[in-house]
Amino acid sequence: MSKTAIAYGIAELLRQAARSYHNSGIPLASFDARCSIDNFAVRTKSPGRRSHPTWRDIDGVDMLSPRLSVNIVEPAFLQEENDGDQYDELGRYLEVEFPTLPETDGDAVFVGQSEENVRCHSFGVLLYELFLNSAPISAGEEPDDGVVSESASKNADASLEWTGKMIQLVDLRGCSNLSGGELPSSLLLVIQSLLDCGEDDRTDHAYDSLDAVISDLHLLLLDPSRFLFHHEPVYDDNGRMKLSFREHQLYGREHEVSLITEAFCRVSGGKSESLFIGGFSGSGKSRLVNALTARVDAVGGYVLTHKFDQMSQEKSMLDVIAIFNNLCLLIKEKSPQLDLLVLVSDLFQVFGSDWSTLARLLPNIKVIVPHLERSADDIEVIDNQMNVRSICFTLQRFLRVVSSATHPVMLFLDDLQWCGKEVLTVVESLLCDTIGPPCVFFVGTYRSNEVADDHEIFCLEKRLKSSGIPLTMLSLEGLNPSYLNTMVSDALCIFPRITEPLSDIIYQKTRGNPFFVLAFMRSLVDRGLLEYNFSTRRWIWDDDDVSKMDITENVLHLLLSKMSGMSPSIQSALKIAACFGMKIEEAFVKTLCADPEHSDIRDWLEQVVKEGFMVKCGTSEFKFVHDKYHYSIGLSLYSSTKGKVADDILFSIADQIKLGIGNLATESPALRIDIAKLYGLAGMRAAASLDHVASRSYLEHALSLLPTDHWKSNYEISLRYSHRLAESCYSCGDVEKAQCILQEMTSQCHSTDDKLPAHSLLARILLDRKSFMEAYTLCHEVLSQLGEDIPSSLEMHQIDEMVEATLQVVERISSRDLLNMKEADESLGISMHFFNIMASAAYMLVDEKLHFVVCRMIQLTMKNGLCKYSNLGFIQFAALLCNRKTAKKKGIAIASQIGKAAMSCCRERYHASDMVPQCQLVYYSIVASHTEPLNACAGMLQQGFDAGMSSGDVGTAFLNASISIMTAVLAGDRLPTLLERVDYYLKLTNTYQQETSKVFLSIFRSTISILIDKGESTNSSLHVIDVPIDTTNTSVLESILYFQRSIQAYWQGHNERCQYYIDMFLSVCCDVWRHQFIMFLNGLNSFHLMREKSSKHLRAITKRAIRVVKTAASRSIWNFNNKIHLLEAEQFSFENNNSEAHTSYAAAISSACSSGFVHEQGLACELAGYHYKKVGDFRSALCFFGQAKRCYTEWGSQMKLDNVTHQFDSLADRVTDDPL
């Protein structure tokens, strides 16, 4: 039976009895007389067949005088965990429970120290008898035979009489003996410390109170394996004794654990959240977060973790991409097959034709979609164009699909102070995604003593707060002395009251930093200042010796001192491992093993693990226990691997050499060039992996190591590195730097061919910066040098002749013809590339030379073969045919045929992601709207935005977004949804500095806001941009502005104003489709005006409107059939041809419903209501106004709903029966 548990019960009874005696005024001597083993009895259950009871049979302990009882209870959660004979003998985690307690005054009991000493000594005598079955003896006194007192039976009778129950009493000294007859050293220490209380010369370990005794006894039962049972020494592989640290215990972090757990629970509810943890190195930041990761994994979440180091800063984007690439593997591992099928379907729906961009960014997506293939064109294009922003956008779309409330993503980035700014940009973009916010729990840790107040981490925190992202900030300080003492006590398996002096010294040395505490205590063992005493079976030390130990506050010299005593082979292994950052992977180990000089590296690393500097991850990787080990080793160790390893560890070598790059100034020119080539290769590899920040850094170092005359002495690598550096600067957003490099390149190049890559990038930069004339001029100059004869000006008749000649060549072309066309040579592709940029610039300049450029692109294609730019030329030619000034009788039909053929060829023959945004923009904004449903065109333009953002063609992406919003408004998409989308795009225009698209989107937002509620609650000063008509400098902007204001005025019922804007629009419009739509509005508006005052001019407008819309309906019944029916209904109504009007209104309503144009369905119902009201059929009028209400409600237009409701309510009073 557990004598320790019994001792604990007796101690609790004595403490309660002492309080009772004190409150009753009974002398202390009377109490001490009761502190005898014969005054206590144990209540047990029947032992059955066993010869003696065990702990399992204990019910409680009774004190006979005064009459007190305590029950000993084992917590239910431990009942299945603690088994074994050792527990039977010594005890387990038990608690006491008093059935009844004597009444007390409730005040604290204060007694003198002398009284406490007597009480503790008496209890020590009792425990001596309990555990050793005899009373303690003085020196020279002979022990007796240990005969049990006969008073036990009397005590039993008293107990039976007191409780009035059938309770079996057991004589304490009759309990089973300890195994082997040997008392644990911890119990001996308790008893000795109690007996010392009776000595005049008290030892330091003597107890001060009975409360302290109870605390120690409770600890013995709380963790018997650590504090009660004998501890045999444990040795490491090198024969050194180990301390018993709790590997996974978080001391003093209960509050922080609660906060981080609560934050994740909120994310599990379907929202993103962020948490930042600051603290000194070794303060336990990583362990705190790791305490949550198992829970995240258990609930179906995906845990992504990465730890940055000092060598991460220049390639941190590579690390981030790798993190999300690994997410694909996690999804495959944790998802059932049916869920994967649904996920793949969702991904294809989101990415559409832009799927290859995701595959390029995250190659592991192939484990989810094994049949996925990527073309070489995709790889080249994305390498050249994807930048940080496009990567952010692609990851946003990916996480919208794969993360959810049931599968939240936890992104843990450790040591943010060493990551690049672009990493924080990615984090911000994921958390602030407003269009489809993913369920992401971001946790970032950083060393608070290594970041300034203006660090990007704190800037990110401010931006997240301003964006409304829930943010939790934690700061981890060192452990306070109490928690530190608990940690030391656990490590030494000694009572906290005894380790307290030692822990105070350690606290002074380490300020409570957990990592430093561990390192310091291990150093005490290594130096023999903390040693295990085999006779007492516990750790011992001398406080004075420990206090005198020389130690710096950062403890690094301890690590270096330990390293200096190791063998040369282990030191060499540490140096080599340090060159790879925090972890050296199996592939690198294999590479090193192939080198004769490092063939034993694996065995050396195994020894490093035994020394405690590294741990093995799985079976093949080695990781430093903490980065302080890494950096105390790797301060000047880059030479260990210089020139000795293969390309697989290129980045690690380049980063390590960078630490000592200043030393290369004195090296030979040949060595400097060799290292420059190493950096150049690293820059190319980084760019291929989409880490343009790292690429830029490597290439700048590469060029800095070349001789001052490198354009003469090293022309080829100077040309290659300079161009790649310019592309990386451009992708990083440093356009000015890119332009400077390109200008230097063009001044140093030997030939026109060598200048072409620089001219190409410079033209793209000028186009993106809206320097359209400069871009056009540059392309003109380059094409002239390539042999193209481009006229400086063109007459209108020349343009017509050119278009007509080209039309005759391509009017019957099909997608099969394009697919079967031969591939053009590379030289044509170069010319077509510059023509493509030139065409974009000419379009924005509204220059008539656009016709020449497009026609020339088709001529070159038909003569020399097809390239990926050819399809855009065909689509642009189709768009020209849709221009009102050049449209022929069959021009729209031919344009549609050519455009469809080119789009089909673009998808089937070329998978170039950089061409998708431009092709989608031109085709679906100008050509397809004549023949394909508006709803589908709006959707494809939105895909063009996604493709442009993913490929890095941001300018074209936002033009797609702008036109998609305009098209969606005309298609009758739900207005509140459109408002959310346009606000999302407007927010991005600020991020990407797209001022032109911002103006367009602001105009469209104004239209949407007015249509919803006249801007009363949906208007926002953040998005209002005043564009005075008389100061607009492009006809494109004028055209859009007048078009939108015409729509706004018509739906608000401002007919005169609407007529003014329609006239202004018609004066600048060159777009046939928008001309056809505005004529529909013009006709409806003219009918409204004629009801007030008819005129020949207005009647002419209505007839012309019907004629134009009929022509449009012949090409697209879907888009225009309801419109022609509504115009005809209005004409019949105006002419009082009521029968035909009724038929046409019904046809307009039905046709609009079939096309999904809920807004125009509502408009037809509203106008029909006015017609029936005019002819006196109030019942029918009420019915149509009711239908209009439902349509406008579905559309989301409160403005129109209010107007129609007013008409409905006024008629309802005149109709006696419910017409509905």
From TrEMBL:
Domain Orc1-like AAA ATPase, first and last residues per copy: 249-431
Record-linked Pfam families: AAA_16
Gene3D superfamilies noted in UniProt: P-loop containing nucleotide triphosphate hydrolases (3.40.50.300)
Coiled coil residues, start to end: none
InterPro entries assigned: AAA_16, Hybrid_Histidine_Kinase, P-loop_NTPase
Protein's name according to its UniProt entry: Orc1-like AAA ATPase domain-containing protein
Organism: Cyclostephanos tholiformis
